[in-house]
Amino acid sequence: MNDVVAEHKSEVRERVWSELRKVAVPDSRFHFDFGEFIADFEGGEAAVQRLIDHRYYQEANFVFITPDNCLDRLRLKALQDGKTVLMTTYSIKRGFWLLDPKTIAPELYLYASTLDGMERVARPVDLEAIRALPPIDYMVTGTGAINMEGVRFGKGHGFFDAEWGMLYQLGRVTTATPTAAVVHDCQVLDEKLTPAVFDTVADVVFTPTRTIEVQGPHKPTVGILWDVLDPHMFETIPPLQQLKAMGL
User: Fold this and answer.
1) Beta pairing, strands 24-25 & 40-41
2) Cβ(182)–Cβ(154) under 8 Å?
3) Are 102 and 176 in contact (CB under 8 A)?
4) What is d(CA 178, CA 202) in angstroms, rounded to the nearest whole number?
5) DSSP string, the chain
6) Residue 206 burial (CB count, 10 A)
7) Over the chain, what is the mean pLDDT?
8) 84-102, pLDDT tens digit by residue?
9) Measured between alpha carbons, how far is 128 from 246 in angstroms, rounded to an integer?
10) Maximum separation of any 2 CA atoms in the chain, in Å
């Protein structure tokens, strides 16, 4: 990523985060350090309810949901609705996990929807196992900032872009796979954002007060760009190492 794009993203994040701090729920570990986690926020229940009522969720059976604080309640609801959930651990350091409501006792759904519980009752899956799974019906993420065109800037680490890239190269998602972002209204910008070629774009944005359908979102088709991948990400994310070993 060149310096101009990096500076642009940093400026947008800092501007949005100053407003988000007024409505965000602090994290037990990171407090209000939005560079380290995606926050839950006031009205988060209403935003998730909009997502649940939307056709993309209603029609999906297999959903990828990021390990963001604002999506705990969505992971729980998906299990209660009989949907299979694929997610990652924090920073993808311990890879992907599959939450299958058919193999988890209903009384453990709430526990399974949390990051600590997920690793105790769900099943870890490597990329070969993911490649044997059905295609993903729906991708859901939180984010740092997003505009009306669905261009999203996350925490700044590129985790969701990496998750999308890996799943894209495995053939589990395509540009036709709907992607949603759940955010507070203060995170939605009515301005042009300049994405990198690998930045993910949302088809729909859910806030506590709005459902924003994006017209013709421009999805990335590059997968993982090894020559621009942060070496630290490669060193600390085993699925990236596996993907490269697979020749993908």
Assistant:
1) antiparallel
2) no
3) no
4) 7
5) --HHHHHHHHHHHHHHHHHHTTTEEPBTTTBT-TTT-PPEETTHHHHHHHHHHSHHHHH-SEEEE---GGGHHHHHHHHHTT-EEEEE-GGGTT-EEEE-TTTS-GGGHHHHTSHHHHHHHSEEE-HHHHHTSPPPSEEEE--SEEETT-BEE-SSS-HHHHHHHHHHHTTS--TTS-EEEE--GGGEESS-----TT--B-SEEE-SS-EEEPSS---------TTTS-HHHHHH-HHHHHHHHTT-
6) 25
7) 93
8) 999 999 899 999 999 999 9
9) 9
10) 50
What angle (nearest 5°) sits at the alpha carbon of residue 23, between those of residues 17 and 27?
75
**Residue 5 near residue 194, CB atoms below 8 Å:** yes
End-to-end alpha carbon distance in the chain: 21
Length, in residues, of the chain: 248
Amino acid at 211: T
Give the integer Cα–Cα distance in Å for 84 and 65: 10
The overall pTM is greater than 0.85: yes
Dig out the tokens for 117 from the structure. Answer: 């519980």
